[in-house]
Write a structure and sequence with these properties.
This protein is of the alpha+beta class. It contains nine helices and 17 strands. The protein has two domains: about 220 residues, T-fold (Roll), CATH 3.10.520.10; about 90 residues, T-fold, CATH 1.10.3980.10. The chain has an eight-stranded antiparallel beta sheet. Strands 16-9-8-17 form a four-stranded mixed beta sheet. The N terminus and C terminus are likely disordered. It binds adenosine-5'-diphosphate and magnesium ion (MG). The site of adenosine-5'-diphosphate (ADP) has 16 residues, from helix 7. Its cofactor is Mg(2+). It catalyses: L-threonyl-[protein] + FAD = FMN-L-threonyl-[protein] + AMP + H(+).
């Protein structure tokens, strides 16, 4: 009798284990991906999990978060707080959300750290350099000087008491073209991670942040495009819980008298940045990586490398106009692998 009971119990236990096994997802983790146009850019959000439904929920939450940020920071949407700040330039301070206030403060800190090479009031520029092929002659030095006369981060007046923002000069404007995508990618990653997604990538047209691992346990890799043939990858970076952001002048430039002029302009002089074809920044923070990619393009090889080597946890890979590849002091140790990976390991190539 006792023996029968034991067998029954054992059977029950087995049945219980089986039931549990059926309820538990038995699949290996998989990558679920969605592409969407956000902030005028092609975003791809990827989530690694066993639970497909959770993946789609988290991806949708990430997309909503990026849309929310766009509505707050866009200088193009008239209803955004950023547009309100711009409309009141030279008139009065505007009280804004803590979140926007903090983004502006962080942007200004990057400006002071870089001697104004990075400046969100860059949006005030008069476009004397044209990238649609319409430029036949160079602008005059006076035109160039005047084009940047309203840019000066020191005239963005922040009041921490009521978190208001005042642009001192009439005609001044701020915009987040060089930092907003990185901030949005950081936030989308945070939202997805908090929902229990153990690994993933938020990729804004090649500027990306990663967390966790690929489904097979490998780290994420990012291919760096060959400057000569931009559809070819010439090296791979290991992207372990990090952001990888590239600014480059492959596509957008003005050409006058056989000379190419970059779309990245030094706000301090009005002249296009020179010397670097492409700047890739690797660091854990997508926002900082985005801002620094633009900044190092402005600063050029020597000054740019100097800056990156001062910053803990920030690395870079630069390609000069002469196709020389230059890396920061620790990049090769941690990230840079000049060897081929299998196509399956590829998550993104830069633009
Ligand atoms: P992309 O968006 O092409 O990847 P970037 O991240 O370098 O390139 O950002 C380019 C945008 O940043 C431009 O649209 C311009 O509005 C803005 N920008 C250009 N130069 C600067 C600068 N020195 N400081 C701040 N913003 C800049
Ligand atoms: Mg940038």
């Amino acid at each position: 009798m006792l023996q029968r009971l034991f067998i029954l119990l054992l059977l029950c236990c087995t049945a219980l284990v089986q039931a549990q096994a059926q309820r538990l997802p038995t699949k290996e983790p998989q990558t679920h991906k969605k592409v969407q146009l956000l902030m005028g850019t092609r975003f791809e959000l990827a989530a690694v999990t066993r639970d497909e439904q959770k993946a789609w929920e988290a991806i949708d939450a990430g997309i909503k978060e990026i849309q929310r940020i766009e509505a707050l920071i866009s200088e193009w949407q008239p209803t955004s707080q950023t547009s309100e700040i711009n409309r009141n330039a030279g008139i009065k301070p505007v009280v804004v959300n803590q979140e926007l206030y903090d983004l502006i403060s962080r942007s200004n800190r990057i400006s002071s750290m870089t001697g104004g090479a990075f400046d969100i009031s860059f949006a005030s520029i008069d476009k004397v350099w044209k990238y649609d092929g319409s430029m036949k002659a160079l602008p005059t030095p006076d035109q160039i000087k005047a084009s940047v006369s309203k840019i000066n981060y020191k005239n963005i007046i922040l009041n921490p008491e009521n978190h208001s923002v005042f642009l001192k000069e009439p005609g001044m404007k701020i915009g987040f073209g060089a930092i907003g995508k990185g901030y949005a990618a950081n936030r989308a990653r945070d939202v997805m991670r908090e929902m229990g997604i153990e690994g993933g990538v938020v990729n804004a047209a090649g500027d990306l942040v990663t967390w966790g691992k690929q489904p097979d346990g490998q780290p994420w890799y990012v291919g760096i495009a060959d400057p000569e043939e931009k559809d070819k990858v010439f090296s791979w970076l290991t992207a372990d819980n990090t952001a990888v952001v590239t600014s480059g002048n492959y596509e957008k430039f003005a050409e006058v008298g056989g000379q190419r002029y970059s779309h990245i302009i030094d706000p301090r002089t009005g002249y296009p940045a020179k010397g670097l074809k492409s700047v890739t920044i690797v660091c854990p923070n997508g926002e900082l990586a985005d801002a620094l990619a633009t900044t190092v393009s402005v600063l050029g090889k020597e000054e740019g490398l100097y800056l990156v080597n001062q910053l803990k946890g920030v690395e870079c890979l630069l390609i000069t106009d002469e196709d020389e590849i230059v890396t920061s002091e620790s990049l090769s140790l941690h990230y840079y692998q000049n060897k081929k990976k299998t196509a399956a390991a590829q998550t993104a190539t830069n633009k």
